[in-house]
């Protein structure tokens, strides 16, 4: 077999550097396909190597016929890596020719994992936040805090950013980033000062089975929207009970995480993002509703974006072609 | 992150060329771990791109702690590829550092898929065939016919090979290969002449949901062993009903295939290969039993072998190091 594939390292994918606008459009198109039942996405499968039990490596395949996109993301999450100077998430993503199954592209999956997660939040916000939302609170200001802010600033005319992080230096990094986007920004003392008055709240800390109540009842305003990138980890049950609409990106996967011990005593699910995007379920209906997205991150997000990275890399001459 | 991984193309893996003896030893060690409940192997997950519905791409992860082996095989099976001059199976296999989850090796998965499948048959035969087995029948003489013959000739003092294939040229290829191994070999007219008198039978044709009765009741001798690399596709139900012991490599996966429509009206499962290898279940107990292995092919097989390929490639200086 005389076939080659294009390999893109982390640096290569960064060089390709799709815009957040392109990523959001691609992921939304993916959810449109999913909403119409036109995507094949089996459950992730996982192994858990090493000590401690918190490590995972997930196999995340998806096939989106309309996009001629089929492939898998093989992504590791190792909490202990940060102390070793290694990223929490590492891994690869492969794309297969839908006609003959042969791999034609392989890329480091860190860029896509970061960006598509922010993009999915922004798509949820597009349907669930008030269109005039201008103030955003970011609770925990790491990689996902940055990506979510970037995506939200693409989807909304943001003016003010309030950044809270238990490590003040992290919050200051996000403040600096927000200012580089032309936004007014401040780090707050405590999460409450960030959340009160915000139109959009993003919580993007580490994921724990045992939530730690960083955000409490009564802080989130009427009419606000929250994206819980860290699942339910940083919200008190009473704060979540204020939800008028509690959504996720995939109900099957949400139930699976419930079986694993996450999302205990959370509100009943109102609908899936794909259903909302295609109009089978309504998004926000009143200016008063408190709306939530607890998106889990899907192979669908990845496979909607990856072919665009490949196409642009090919056009730019980035990456290396390798024989199979 | 300043980390690289070793990429091995199909040609590279062929250059490494582990011996079948090494592959059998590694796969048997894998089944020992599995038999003791010390391997983590979630179910395959699958997508089915393209037209026709027979195509699959499987995500096959496995973690074997004792071997410090963790990774995934991402393997496509496209029946239409043969007509396009492409292999039925194509794909990649990734190995992850168990301590930090970072990928350290990636290889074309065709060599390993071919060889470990033959090896698993030979391991089943080691426990289920008569030790003095000397005559083998191979029904359908493609890639797996060759690999199974190679593995069986490693595990037994074979003398005679009877090759049957609906395409006589295919059978002649296997005959030539058998002679190159120093064995007496003939192509037979019809499957019956191959199966009657054989101590070991391997059926290795294409896999169909609707079996086609290539091997019938009364042909398989008392005391013979059969490895059904093509599932139950080429055996009549009455022929299978003669089984005294009907085994598989993984009961969970076997049930899954039953749910998909394979293995209908087959004998009850006696045991799993891992159980037999570690002695929790007995292998052959009398010289008269007809014993069967319907092995499905597991990620365990792949992950038991792949680290050896990596280690030898590194030692030989084969492959190319790529930045993540």
Structure description:
- The structure is a homodimer.
- The first copy, chain A, folds into two domains: about 130 residues, ornithine cyclodeaminase, domain 1; about 170 residues, 3-Layer(aba) Sandwich (Rossmann fold), CATH 3.40.50.
- Chain A is about 35% helix and about 25% strand.
- Chain A contains ten helices and 15 strands.
- In chain A, the strands form two sheets. Chain A has an eight-stranded parallel β-sheet. A seven-stranded mixed β-sheet of chain A has the order 2-3-4-5-6-1-15.
- In chain A, helix 3 crosses helix 10.
- The longest helix of chain A has 19 residues.
- The first copy, chain A, starts with a strand and ends with a strand.
- The relative contact order of chain A is 0.19.
- The model of chain A has no long low-confidence stretch (mean pLDDT about 95).
- Chains A and B meet through strand 2, strand 3, strand 4, strand 5 and strand 6 of A and strand 2, strand 3, strand 4, strand 5 and strand 6 of B.
Largest interface, by Cβ-Cβ below 8 angstroms: which chains and how many residues each?
A-B, 54 and 54 residues
The oligomerization state is homodimer
- CATH architecture grouping of the largest domain in chain A: 3-Layer(aba) Sandwich
Q: What is the overall number of helices of chain A?
A: 10
Structural class of chain A: alpha/beta
CATH superfamily heading of the largest domain in chain A: NAD(P)-binding Rossmann-like Domain
Number of strands of chain A: 15
Order of helices and strands of chain A: EHHEEEEEHEHEHEHEEHEHEHEHE
